[in-house]
Amino acid sequence: MNGWCAEGFEGVARAFADNFTERGEHGAAVSVRWRGVEVVSLAGGYRDEHKASPWTTDTLVNMYSAGKGVLSTLLLRFVDRGEIDWETRLSSVWPEFAVGGKDTATIDHALSHRAGVPAIGPVLTNDDLRDWTTMTSALAATPAWSPPGARVIYHTNTFGHLIGELVRRLGGTRPGVHLQQLVTPLGIDVHFGVRPEDAHRCAEVLWRPAHPIPDIASFDGFDGDTLMNLKAHFNPPGYSSIGLVNSPEWRSLDIGSTSGHASARGLCDFYDALCTPDMLVSTPTLEAATRTLVHGDCPLLGEHVTFARGFQPTTPRRPLGPSRHSFGHFGTGGALGFADPDRHVSFGYVMNHVIPRWQSSRNRALIDALYASPPLQ
């Protein structure tokens, strides 16, 4: 391990070390701020499968859905400025979207996974994945899988193009550029599209899915929720990053739902800035965005889900500490950024050995150790 922790937070360091010796961690980092001051900054293990490159506190890695909270913040800034509100129809910003039963979809629906487009209808290729206009045009042309607002269906990959295109239309720049313009002056190390000069900092993602990517041609035998699920993950084939994740092409994509990269410190600093009044968004907007808005059984994830507007609120099943108002977002394999406004805590954790699903024994151990620290008692 390298890095440090402040007096009173030694338990986090012990839990982090135990992740390697007891829970199969390969490479990872964790960062914590308390009352705006960094109190934990730890890194350990290796960036690569062959253990040649040590992980450091400035190592970047794919954060998967942990980027959804970051992306949503970009859209919240337009809410803050009064350019849109929760009930604004997407079609007023993106006219092409108003087809196939999607004309009633609102900003609220989009941020809470109820816009009706968890998957793209037209068949796409990985070459299409690299073209923003092709992807967003195909998304806009997709008929609603269910009427907007009717079902909570996790927009696992399409969230990046859905929210990202709204950001582009409102702000005039793609989400990757928009994000860098926001965070670079603040020194926050999060990226939608890794810059060439930062490529040397990237860690390999170690993920061997249990099943190969299915042939899109084989989807013809399915319909309904089964077809929706297949297309959500594999249309285009590499939409979930499988087979592409460690390539320069993937790292350059600014798909905020899936391909974003960050250091642990970057995620932690982002949530600290988010909770600093008027630094990224106003307090009223943040409070409205982080309250539980919807919950229900999600056919894509096969479980009961709870969402706020662009964030995951703390829940008994996936607690973000003991505070009622904690919020953030998990990513595939366990990556996590969250904030606890009650205790003035922000947290970032990233890793490269992917364990399926969001909550893992590793991030849970770190959270539990953090809140057992004497300064937070």
Helix and strand element order = EHEEEHHHHHHHEHHEHHEEEEEEH
Helix and strand composition category: alpha+beta
Side-by-side strand order of the widest sheet: 1-3-2-12-11-10-9
The biggest beta sheet, please?
A: 7 strands, antiparallel
Rough outline = globular
What is the rounded distance between the termini? 26 Å
Rg: 19 Å
Give the strand tally: 12
What fraction strand?
Answer: 5-15%
Instruction: Give helix % range.
Output: 25-40%
Contiguous low-pLDDT stretches (5 residues minimum) are: none
Describe this structure in words.
The chain is α+β, with helices and mostly antiparallel strands and 377 residues long. Helix content is 32%, strand content 15%. The strands form 3 sheets. A 7-stranded antiparallel β-sheet has the order 1-3-2-12-11-10-9, with helices on both faces. Strands 4-6-5 form a 3-stranded antiparallel β-sheet. The protein has a two-stranded antiparallel ribbon with strand order 7-8. α1 runs antiparallel to α13. The longest helix is centred in the first third of the chain and has 14 residues, at 67-80. The two termini are 26 Å apart.
Please outline what is shown here:
The protein is built from 13 helices and 12 strands. The protein is α+β, with helices and mostly antiparallel strands and 377 residues long.
Question: What's the helix and strand layout?
Answer:
Layout: E1 2-5, H1 10-22, E2 27-34, E3 37-45, E4 61-62, H2 67-80, H3 90-93, H4 107-111, H5 126-129, H6 132-141, H7 158-171, H8 175-183, E5 190-191, H9 224-234, H10 248-252, E6 261-262, H11 264-274, H12 283-290, E7 294-298, E8 303-307, E9 312-313, E10 327-330, E11 336-340, E12 345-351, H13 361-371
Antiparallel strand pairs: 1-3, 2-3, 2-12, 4-6, 5-6, 7-8, 9-10, 10-11, 11-12
Helix pairs in contact: 1-13, 2-7, 6-7
